[in-house]
Amino acid sequence: MSRIYLSPPDVGQQERDAIVAAIDSNWVAPIGPDLDAFEAEVAERANRPYGVGLSSGTAALHLALILAGVGPGDEVIVPTLTFVPTANVATYVGAKPVFIDVELDSWCLSPELVAEFLEKRARVGKIPKAAMVVDLYGQCADYGRLLPIFAKYGVTVIEDAAEALGAHRDGLPAGSHGQFAVFSFNGNKIITTSSGGMLLCNSPDEAARARKLATQAREPFPYYEHVELGYNYRLSNLLAAFGRVQLADLDSRIKRRFAISEIYAAQLREIDGLTFMPIPEGSEPNHWLTCVRFDQKVTKVNPELLRLALEAEDIESRPIWKPLHTMPLFAGCEAILDGSAEAIFNDGLCLPSGSSLKVSELERITDIILQAAKR
Questions:
Q1: Burial of 73 by CB count in 10 Å (0-12 exposed, 13-18 middle, 19+ buried)?
Q2: What's this model's pTM, rounded to 2 decimal places?
Q3: DSSP 3-state helix, strand, coil percentages of the chain (rounded to 5)?
Q4: Ramachandran region, residue 134 (left: φ > 0; alpha: ψ -120 to 50; beta: rest)
Q5: Cβ atoms < 10 Å from Cβ of 370
Q6: Would the pLDDT of 29 be above 90?
């Protein structure tokens, strides 16, 4: 039996045809009609007027901080339960991350802890410059509560929607919140361009500056003139052609991943102490990954032992993101915690969730989990 991956690319003949057509058009450099169209189509999904296709979601986060004016000596709020690039990019610009815990009913940034933290910081006149709000595992944070808090203290909000394309919260799409937003099209995401990402902006000036910075910040002269530091961050027209086909199929991929999560819920419902990532009222996640927790007070299923049991059968699963405040890389950074992220990490597991997952493969996975529960 072939290996089952956590979230592999789901690719077919249409993607191949799109790549060939782009090659035949000779638009193979980092500009072209497919890139222009892909930027517009993704921006439309996020209710944004402008999108800038980039080489990765990390590149998009980096440029978002630069456009927000974040630099040396500044602080950036980051939820501790996320992938490391969300915090890494703060260090790229010389800023320092401040980690804040998540709420248990969404696993996203806690509005209560944010409000308490900013109130205390306001008393001493030391407000962070920006906040990275993460839409974790394809579920949007509670922007209805978070945005007014950040607005009160003048904190620029960047929505890290890397995992959440196609999700909604209170009727608003992922990528529509804050001054800037970011998507990732890495190979494991719900749609992919092999590697790639996108920065979502509200003004033509922001988009133009992002494009300039992403193409080595070249000045508009016939010779090469550079006044500021630039980067080689643009997405290629070839990969954008690939992404357009994937984007056209986004809604069916969301439906398939939702169906997979429903099958897991039905097949594993008898396991005491097993819960799934909660979905608050008003939240419509894209179900990028099906994530579960095993209450160690109720069940004998240990998530790490279960991960090893699945791996022994050539099935990939992964722990929940390890909280960033526990990383040696960020030793000494301030962290406002209530134990939620560490609890989720300690008893959580991400299950295979790819949209190409077969019913027979789901049966393999659930059989192993049920056997572990019996043992």
A1: exposed
A2: 0.96
A3: 40, 20, 40
A4: beta
A5: 15
A6: no
